[in-house]
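Q: What would this chain look like folded?
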Amino acid sequence: MTAESANHRTKQILAESLRAIMKTKKLDRITIADVVKECGVSRRAFYYHFKDIYDATWWLVEEDWKDRIDFDAEDWRGNMRELLHYFEENRDFVSAVLDSSQSQRMEELFRLKIKDSFKRYLTEADRDHVVTEQDAELLSQYYTTILTATLGGWIRGTIRCSDERLMTLVYESTEASLTRTVRTIGEYPV
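A: My prediction, written as structure tokens:
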């Protein structure tokens, strides 16, 4: 095992210990002592890899998303399904981050992923090129805000349904609304 892979493995052990603790303890209350006790790694090793608990949290999020959330520019529905499956599999972790001082950062990450995917979808739906760049930006922001709030409620448990049901409702209502908007947007003055 190379030094680089050993370092990555130690980071992973520390971060996974943090994830495990987040199932029973709020992120803002977790200490470095909790993490190193959970995994048996020294405090010094923790600080070698991370500057604090939140740094470890975001490293873990980035690793998760790098390995699991690989959006395809052509498949908005598949992208949303992939995102929902990730949230379903990691509900405790994502919910703990959303219920912490890091919630805005997590929501911003949702927004960025959703907005990129949605904007590509909008461009595809606009076959006649009637949607201006300004309108595309506004529509992307509008749908992104709605989807981010909906996902947050679903993750926190205030919206109760399966990920497949949520996906169907979100996709069908968004597609119907967007199709109508693209079809009629040219009728309104700029």
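The radius of gyration is 20 Å.
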